[in-house]
Recover the amino acids of this structure.
């Protein structure tokens, strides 16, 4: 136990050292985000006085991110553009001869493909952990609340649905080096491929 406290290199991951963005929504606009989570389904088998359980499928849970709504760039307008790019058309703009509808392909493309939630080190020199959300799309948006009693910043809550997530930790040197926007890797990382 004494070795841990005496080791100056050992440091826990910190909740405030992270970055995330997606098409049109810059990193500085993000306020908080849930990291991915999953549950494993189960099947139950009853026999006499007993119950036995068997693991089933992995189901990834939605994540929620909160962002601030600046005047410029306008986050509300950006999110509505993303939703329009999924195939959504206002009812009074519908083309009767060729009506558009929402599709998964357009929804994923509208948000920019994979989304990365990246945890960074104290010096900003490297990624110590990243989650890649595969096939993400916007499931819901709450544009916030206005009140004469509140002088705070307007926040937007976005729920993202995705098919699955990949953890890319500092031992995955090759993958972290390829993450968008971050060419550096944490200096303590090892290459598991070698």
């Amino acid at each position: 136990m004494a070795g841990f406290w005496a080791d100056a290199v050992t440091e826990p991951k910190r909740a405030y050292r992270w970055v995330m963005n997606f098409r049109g929504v810059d990193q500085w606009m993000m306020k908080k985000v849930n990291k991915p989570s999953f549950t494993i389904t189960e099947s139950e088998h009853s026999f006499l006085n007993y119950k036995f359980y068997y693991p089933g499928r992995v189901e990834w849970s939605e994540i929620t991110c909160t962002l601030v709504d600046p005047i410029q760039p306008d986050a509300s307008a950006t999110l509505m553009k993303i939703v329009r790019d999924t195939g959504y058309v206002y009812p009074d703009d519908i083309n009767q001869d060729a009506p558009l509808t929402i599709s998964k392909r357009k929804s994923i493309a509208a948000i920019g493909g994979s989304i990365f939630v990246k945890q960074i080190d104290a010096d900003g020199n490297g990624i110590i952990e990243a989650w890649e959300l595969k096939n993400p799309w916007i499931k819901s948006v709450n544009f916030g609340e206005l009140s004469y009693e509140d002088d705070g910043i307007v926040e937007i809550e976005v729920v993202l649905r995705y098919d699955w997530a990949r953890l890319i930790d500092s031992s995955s040197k090759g993958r972290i080096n390829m993450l968008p926007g971050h060419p550096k890797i944490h200096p303590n990382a090892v290459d598991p491929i070698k």
In short: Residues 45 and 53 are 6 Å apart (CA to CA). The chain has a mean pLDDT of 85. The two ends are 32 Å apart (CA to CA).
